[in-house]
Amino acid sequence: MISCNKADLVLLGWVIFTQLWCALTQSAMYTDEDFLKRHNNYRQMLLDGKVPNQPIPKYLPLLRWNPNLKESARQWAERCVFAHEGGTGQGENLAAAMGYLPDPVERWFNEHQHYKFGPIIANEPVPVGHYTQIVAARTTDLGCYMRVCPELRITGSVKWLNAYFTTQTRQTQRSRRPPPPPPPPRQQQQQQQQQQQQQQQQQQQQQQQQQQQQQQQQQQQQQQQQQQQQQQQQQQQQQQQQQQQQQQQQQQQPLESRPQRRKPPRRPSRLR
């Protein structure tokens, strides 16, 4: 029986920790090292660009073996039921085969032939979620366990005898596609040119705004100067008017203040 499970994201401070565990019950067929090596080999192939029609991730760490995940996989695999455990916060990859020893990791990985980069669509005609979980960049830990089920319950009354079994639980967060590949050099150059143009436009706009502000300040200064000149002219006019009034007053004062000459009194005449 083979069962593979992936854990959901766990956010600890600034560290994002994701676990992948494969429950693959084993009877001297696959060792822990075999499972870990197979997963990491496929991840390295994707990172090296050796998987046809698949984007090359910027970052894809190799997986680590996790004994706790292996024990969790073993407990679920012992049930010999072809179904997802659910409610554990872990994803699962499941597969079943009779009459031969399967390579579940290869079967999951071969789904890349049907995978197109983009959002996952519910109820896809060809499953690809097993592949996306194997190559998820946020997955860091792996645990696997394998055994032969004397009787594997598939659905309802359908049972397989002496079967190998594998399972996958897919959730939106756990089955997200790998990040898109970096843009080619030409696109990067175009993006840089666009950014430079935008920066230049912003600088030009800022310069125009500064010029407008300077013009407004100059206009205000000119208006203030004109007002001051007008005030000075008014003051000068007032002073001139005052001076004229004073002169007029001075001219009138001598005439008014000049004393009138009195005629001497006439002497009485005498007759001789």
TrEMBL record:
<dbReference type="InterPro" id="IPR001283">
    <property type="entry name" value="CRISP-related"/>
</dbReference>
<protein>
    <recommendedName>
        <fullName>SCP domain-containing protein</fullName>
    </recommendedName>
</protein>
<keyword id="KW-0732">Signal</keyword>
<feature type="region of interest" description="Disordered">
    <location>
        <begin position="247"/>
        <end position="272"/>
    </location>
</feature>
<feature type="compositionally biased region" description="Low complexity">
    <location>
        <begin position="187"/>
        <end position="208"/>
    </location>
</feature>
<feature type="domain" description="SCP">
    <location>
        <begin position="30"/>
        <end position="162"/>
    </location>
</feature>
<dbReference type="Pfam" id="PF00188">
    <property type="entry name" value="CAP"/>
</dbReference>
<dbReference type="InterPro" id="IPR014044">
    <property type="entry name" value="CAP_dom"/>
</dbReference>
<feature type="compositionally biased region" description="Basic residues">
    <location>
        <begin position="260"/>
        <end position="272"/>
    </location>
</feature>
<feature type="region of interest" description="Disordered">
    <location>
        <begin position="167"/>
        <end position="208"/>
    </location>
</feature>
<dbReference type="InterPro" id="IPR035940">
    <property type="entry name" value="CAP_sf"/>
</dbReference>
<feature type="signal peptide">
    <location>
        <begin position="1"/>
        <end position="23"/>
    </location>
</feature>
